[in-house]
Amino acid sequence: MIYNIIEIANTHGGSIDYLRGLIKEFEDFTEGYGMKFQPFKYDEIATPDYEWFEVYKKLYISKGDWAELIDYVSITKDVWIDVFDGYGIEIIRHNLNKIKGIKLQASILMNRNLLQSLSNLNMTEKKLIINISGYELSEIKERLSYINKLIKPQEILLEVGFQSYPTELMDAGVSKLKEIKAHFDNRIVFADHVDGSSEHAIWLPVIAAMLGVDVIEKHVMHSNLETEYDRFSSVKVDDYRKYIELQKKYISLLDQSFINDREKVYLEKSIQLPILKANKNKGSTVSLEDLSYKRTGKNGLNTKQLEELLMDFHILTTDKRAGEPLYVEDFKKATIATVIACRLKSTRLPKKALLPIGNLSSIELCLKNALKFRNVNHTILATSSMEEDRDLERYCYREDVIFHKGDPDDVIQRYLDIVRMLKVDVIIRATGDCPYLSNDICQFLLKAHFVSGADYTCGVGEAVGTSVEIINAAALERVKSYFPRADYSEYMTWYFQNNPEYFKVNKVKLPEKWCRDYRLTLDYEEDLSLFNTIEKYFSQNNLEYTLEALFKFLDQNPEVAGINKHLRLRYKSDPELIRLLDEVTKIRS
């Protein structure tokens, strides 16, 4: 049995009397029928510059009137609600026990704020229709999974059909039905939007029903009262009664393309665009958490386009104000540099950077593995301008490694000097005493950094010496503005993690396969012994370093991993140093 939804849309023009009269005309349709309303508030669904904003104000109906109308309809049939904004959520909340189900238009399926608000309601006994116009099959699958997990409705139905005032017959979406049924187990809703004055308005929904849809949604209007809005695809009660027979001539509609050009235009024009919640500075990344979603009269990036830019490591090229949409010209591909700080002043293990690990010096092995990092424009060995560190220039491993000499003690200044020269936007920070840096971890943190819109990103759970830190150059400049002389900045981490109120700090739990308690940093003879044992194993087995291969060896040979297990990191174990760093790296307003 086909379930029928009588769609009121905006035919009422804001008139309560019109709605009462229309409900009365359709009161004979009871069992197996529902009636759907579209409550929204003008300033929540759109911005004032949107072309329909003034019409939306006219269509506004108060909460009290909606409650009366819902009560009236629920006497004879089910009540459905189209939700567009927070006002619609409130209507649902106050009338939830009388509502059969909720519908989400295609234009709001990416509105995370609205979906989150809907998830706060108890939807376990409610049905949910999602309109999938303009979405490819892979996108439908992703949205279906996300919404089902978030909102947890009793059932999700997929709806085909979009409104184009009116929608032409070829655009009705009949050709999608077979493919949707083949890919999804959900029941299907067919929304009929063809010209209400044509014969197709009677027969098309019948054809859809015969093709296997479970629910028919059809627009209606009052038989006698003037209808100013949404009349294009609406039928009067007498015509509504007629759509009960089949016409084979509509079978040819199955050959139409899955998404037509007009449908794409519909989604492009109606989809809610991401808009900044707060000001964002040039050089920063943008997180999805920085956004709200609204229809706007301006053309900006949609959610998918923005996500693609962020996943491709783009940053802002200009300052942006709250309330503005984002444009592709606001972004550029970030210039990313790996900067490895290294000196030869170690007292515990003198000139440790030059000590041999296998066939290479320690610093060369570090550089070799850092050069495996993808999505990097420059690899820099950053040392001091002191005479004692000059020898490092002969240990750059490869000629494309940039050798930079800078401030001996202020490592932040040393970084900024080369970062400014090369116009670097994002820094991958590492130190020269870590010969087993992991590209896998680096790429994981890079993506997490850009998607989160962080100033600073680090991993949690890694084996010491395998991970990196990701830092926006603009954020490092801000650190420098607070600390004109940062003589403890060899401990650069503290300047960010000790000031979360000034910087967006993103600590990312790494996948378990990359987490161990091994010590893979060079500071003592035991560390050097461990590393040479590792390199001997790699050489004898003709293996190139990967984190997976290294962990496999150490996991299977705990006596090797135990060579330096008793050693501790001073900046994690020395209470006096920790106290000092907490004090000298704290920003005082």
From TrEMBL:
Start and end residues of each PseI/NeuA/B-like domain: 51-246
GO CC annotations, alphabetized: cytosol
Keyword line: Nucleotidyltransferase, Transferase
Listed Pfam families: CTP_transf_3, NeuB
Keyword Nucleotidyltransferase attached: yes
GO terms classed as biological process: carbohydrate biosynthetic process
Annotated GO MF terms: nucleotidyltransferase activity
SUPFAM superfamilies according to UniProt: Aldolase, Nucleotide-diphospho-sugar transferases
Keyword Isomerase: no
Name of the protein this chain belongs to: Spore coat polysaccharide biosynthesis protein SpsF (Cytidylyltransferase family)/sialic acid synthase SpsE
